[in-house]
Design brief:
- The complex is a heterodimer of chains A (107) and B (123).
- Chain A has 107 residues and is an all-beta fold.
- Chain A contains no helices and eleven strands.
- The radius of gyration of chain A is 13 Å and the shape is globular.
- Chain B starts with a strand and ends with a strand.
- Classes of the chains: A mainly beta (107), B mainly beta (123).
- At the A-B interface, β4, β5 and β10 of A face β5 and β10 of B.
Chain lengths: 107, 123
């Protein structure tokens, strides 16, 4: 199974900061990676698909990029509602695998 | 509007069984692959199982293979997860999620999710 190593597991930042979250795949997955946001007690929400495609209705403060098997989610100008948890998911092949998650906390 | 609503969660004893349902609306259910994802208390997300649009193929995580069965009824716009031989490690919120259908027959990103159903396995 493809392993997704997500880092950091948590980070502290202030409103207005920019932060970067990374997922590294254990093998080639083309660009088949999505980024999801999860608020407490809610189902996840798709932010970015295919490594860098921003979903309709999602703020342009979110962006995704790829370098080989390394994938990055960048959140620019953090807003109060962004302080939640983020996950990556490789949808290249089964079994599908999530990263361990990154909790973004207010400093 | 796309909507996915899970039901059937609850408290069950170790070794017991439970069947989750996911009722969907707002899209042509029969043309999309569907999925179950779970989240243990305080833990991350774990993919559990997927089924293709026509039910021709099913896929399972190793952790549930042989114990869980995914199925669907396209006439009823419903997805199911039959869970047998439950253990305390199966305690989690279970989400159903729609596969975007980017490439028919292949996995894709999950573009819509339900709110989840809590399954608690405890004696």
């Amino acid at each position: 199974a493809i392993q997704m190593t997500q880092s950091p597991s948590s980070l502290s930042a202030s409103v207005g900061d920019s932060v970067t979250i990374t997922c590294r795949a254990s093998q080639h997955i083309t660009n088949q990676l999505g980024w999801y946001q999860q608020r407490p007690g809610r189902g996840p929400k798709l932010l970015i698909s295919d490594a860098s495609f921003l979903q309709s209705g999602v703020s342009s403060r979110f962006s995704g990029s790829q370098s080989g098997t390394d994938f990055t989610l960048t959140i620019s100008s953090l807003q109060p509602e962004d302080f939640v948890t983020y996950y990556c998911l490789q949808d290249y092949n089964y079994p599908l695998t999530f990263g361990g998650g990154t909790k973004v906390e207010i400093k | 509007e796309v909507e996915l609503v899970e039901s059937g969660g609850g408290l069950v004893k170790p070794g017991g069984s439970l069947r989750l349902s996911c009722a969907v609306s707002g899209f042509s259910f029969s043309t999309y692959n569907m999925n179950w994802v779970r989240q243990a208390p305080g833990k991350g997300l774990e993919w559990v199982s997927s089924v293709t649009a026509s039910s021709s193929h099913t896929f399972y995580a190793d952790s549930v293979k042989g114990r869980f069965t995914i199925s669907r009824d396209n006439a009823k716009n419903s997805l199911y997860l039959q869970m047998n031989s439950l253990t305390v490690e199966d305690t989690a919120v279970y989400y159903c999620a729609r596969d975007s259908g980017r490439v028919p027959g292949l996995p894709g990103h999950f573009d819509y999710w339900g709110q989840g159903a809590l399954v608690t396995v405890s004696s």
